[in-house]
Amino acid sequence: MTEPEISATRTARCSCGGLRLSFRGEPLRVYACACLECQRATGSAFAYRARFHRNAVSEDEGERRRFRRVTEAGRWMDQIFCPACGSLVYMEAEAIPDELAVSVGCFSDSKFPPPAALFWARRKHDWYGLHEAVRLVE
Ligand SMILES: [Zn+2]
Ligand SMILES: [Zn+2]
What we know:
Blueprint (H helix, E strand, L loop, with lengths): L8 E5 L6 E5 L4 E5 L2 H7 L4 E7 L3 E5 L3 E6 L5 E6 L6 E6 L5 E5 L13 E3 L15 E3 L1
Parallel strand pairs: 3-10, 10-11
Antiparallel strand pairs: 1-2, 2-5, 3-4, 4-9, 6-7, 7-8, 8-9
The protein binds zinc ion (2 copies).
């Protein structure tokens, strides 16, 4: 794949606008996860996230706090949120030290690339269907 001539810049922000991060170029990976931790963290039926390399960050502003949890594999994962409004804007994980996993909803972009996979598909709520291109990972 060749680098697109003009790379898009996208900005993710929290509800109050205090915490903002902009990213150059396309995400490395886009995925959804229906595990119970992601359901609790988002308050929704699944998380929808885009992973970007840290080098893709072009703007990074605002206060933030982090909540660390430990995965089943025993590795840490930080949920990073705005202390004023509570939006979970992105995550950092021990397993992917060079990347940020950004909450796609924070981009406010209905044309954002779709997830390639839904992880923890066995936790998926019955009411929603997914495009056939989305791979289900149990
Ligand atoms: Zn905020
Ligand atoms: Zn999850």
